[in-house]
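request received
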Amino acid sequence: DTGVSQNPRHKITKRGQNVTFRCDPISEHNRLYWYRQTLGQGPEFLTYFQNEAQLEKSRLLSDRFSAERPKGSFSTLEIQRTEQGDSAMYLCASSLGAQVFDSTEAFFGQGTRLTVV
Amino acid sequence: AQSVTQLGSHVSVSEGALVLLRCNYSSSVPPYLFWYVQYPNQGLQLLLKYTTGATLVKGINGFEAEFKKSETSFHLTKPSAHMSDAAEYFCAVTSGNMLTFGGGTRLMVKP
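response:
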């Protein structure tokens, strides 16, 4: 499978615990995005990377959230001290090119569904 | 800031009927526009996109959309609905270095 891969697919955690998600983009894609999607809503932008550089972060990304993309390959999204409001689907997408989402398609992974209890 | 409005969070059609999902956007610059489909517990799949050129865009699974700059709209249509079209549909517009999505429209197809 050469698509965007996200692990785990599902995560249940207790409030206050830390969680980490992983995204493996399509290998030649230089841009990687994280989105959050709550039930019944459209995806909301969290952050994106061009190669290993994190170029933009949404105000939704509180200081409990951190994302990395070492060596410009896979990316991790960590949430510290989880809260019930963090329960959502976390989607990763990747694309190729200098201009994101222009004429090149962005490919989304299947997401990681986080439930904080 | 750019935004996307999808009128109707739920749309129900009969199998074989016309599908029309509405999308209006706001943008201060010429936009790139997209429609994505999401099946339950899945990621998003691109249906079609408008960047430049022809304003009527054809996508996968028989869907098409027309970019109307004067109406700031990018409505999605399909002449004849299939049961397999039941899913959530999202309209999106480029906004700086990110996609901004609408709230989504759940399409239900009745036999």
